[in-house]
Amino acid sequence: MWNLQVNRDKTKRTRIHLAPTGSPDHGNEAWRQMKTLGSRLDSAVDVQARISLAQLSMRKMQGMWGASKVNLALKVRLYNASIHPILLYNSGTGGQTTWMLLTVGI
User: Fold this and answer.
1) What are the tens digits of pLDDT across the range 48-106?
2) How many Cα atoms sit within 13 Å of 88 on the Cβ side?
3) 18, 29 Cβ separation under 8 angstroms
4) 67-72: long-range contacts, CB 8 A cutoff, minimum separation 24
5) Could you give the angle at the alpha carbon of 65 between the alpha carbons of 63 and 67, nearest 5°?
6) Strand, helix or coil at 99?
7) Non-local CB neighbours of 12 within 8 Å, separated by 6+ positions
8) pTM for this structure?
9) What pLDDT, in 10s, does the model give residues 22-64?
10) Average pLDDT over the chain, rounded to whole?
11) Are 26 and 19 in contact (CB under 8 A)?
12) pLDDT higher for 16 or 50?
């Protein structure tokens, strides 16, 4: 049988409070920036962060993308191995809006 125990020192409790629409705090609640297992609790913020990380990875390989000596098949394999997973990490676990799916390009 499983012998799982919660480490209370590493456990972080999050209380989600939505500010009323029209309030100056609406959309800026502290919980929106919190991370759990590498993803932010607010899906829209998480999508934007993933897009930024993917763009950073693309910039790091900029010399390779423009190189004519590297064939297209290798570029596609590198994109699928290094950029695509960043964009899609944990994307199937929450409700995604049409805007989010179009932004990521799914």
Assistant:
1) 888 888 899 989 988 888 888 889 999 999 989 988 888 777 666 566 666 666 766 65
2) 10
3) yes
4) none
5) 65
6) helix
7) 34
8) 0.56
9) 666 666 666 666 666 666 666 677 778 888 888 999 899 888 8
10) 76
11) yes
12) 50
The pair of three-digit structure tokens given for residue 70, joined into one six-digit string: 């590297």
Tokens at residue 60, please? 């790091």
Q: What is the CA radius of gyration of the chain?
A: 19
SS3 45: helix
Please report the beta strands in 1-106, taking only residues with DSSP state E, as ranges in sequence order. Answer: 35-36, 39-40
> Which token pair is 75?
């570029």
Token output for 89: 């990490």
| Straight-line distance from the first to the last Cα atom of the chain, in angstroms, rounded to the nearest whole number | 41
Tokens at residue 29, please? 């609640």
Instruction: Read off the tokens for 3.
Output: 């012998």
